[in-house]
Amino acid sequence: MKRRTFLKGAGSVAFAPMVFVPRLFGRTRRGTGMKLRYEVKRLDLKHTWTIARGSSQFKQNVIVRVEKDGFVGYGEAAPNIRYNETVESTVAVIEKAIPLFEKAEPWHYVDLGQAIQELAEEQTAAKAALDIALMDWVTKAAGLPFYRFLGLDKKKTPITTMSIGIDTPEVIQQKVREAADFPVLKIKVGLKNDEEIIAAVRAVTEKPLRVDANEGWKSKEEALEKIRWLVSQGVEFVEQPLPSTMLEETRWLRDRVEIPIIADESVKRASDIPKLAEAFDGVNIKLMKAGGLQEALRMIWMARSLGMKIMLGCMIETSVAISAAASISPLVDFADLDGNLLITNDPFDGVKVRRGKLLLTDRPGIGVVPRA
Ligand code: MG
Predict the structure, then answer these.
(1) Which parts of the chain have pLDDT scores under 70?
(2) How many whole angstroms from 239 Cα to the centroid of ligand 1?
């Protein structure tokens, strides 16, 4: 990505030369301010992406870049209409953050992280971009990979699933073949043709499957019938079988099925988790729902304290947001961090996947560099 393609924020000046200045951890220079820029990026999808909510052929995300003292932090927002987010609403929040970053002390990242959360009601994708960029900057300036900053062992990253969106049986089988390197697949269901989809997958693979209904089943009885059948098809767990408003029904369902039920649309932030513990076995934490890395970490501790399983998920995202999530993945049980693998024009290089295993880089920060 070329620097000049970033929109220039109000009041910002030209980039400082990229001179590496040796510095002690935590030492700060006052009054320089952080320069915040952003760029709307069109991401082209390998296949039309269909889930229970709808279809898309491309995605528009917003890449954020913060710079101070010669270090550059990257962040990303993947706006999701499910949460009333658009590119416009996301950009509006990011623009509000420009003066905040100008006067902020980034080493006080807990305070700045809190100020980011207070920029707007909801709009967590925008907040995620800002918080990821902040934590990338902090850990680059500290000279440490983010996972090492947290004291995590990069060998403990989980296997990530590859997600298979809803499609015709022929295309689904093509996607399954393309996912040959992944030992576990995540299958999107929740429309009328669930049986057809699973049959198409099972015709070409014996791999363990995880299933995501994306709130697509509309009654607890329908969900119960579907899940019992899915268990017979080798499904390990099911994600968000019922709409997020149907907590009581989900609790009823959980008492009657033997595989874990994981919350996704029902959970955004840490404060949502306690009330879910009776109805769900686990939570799918996503940086875009949480509003960034700092809140995602609070969610992990909250879910663990309640004895819940933890999955780390994603939206359609570049290697920026995926690498950020992968950096905290040694803390979780399951990963579904394949959003960057569903696009053809990822502008960044970061975390890699081998036989499903997430491989973190040794680069400082979240471990990403722009592709030439
Ligand atoms: Mg999901």
Answers:
(1) 1-32
(2) 6
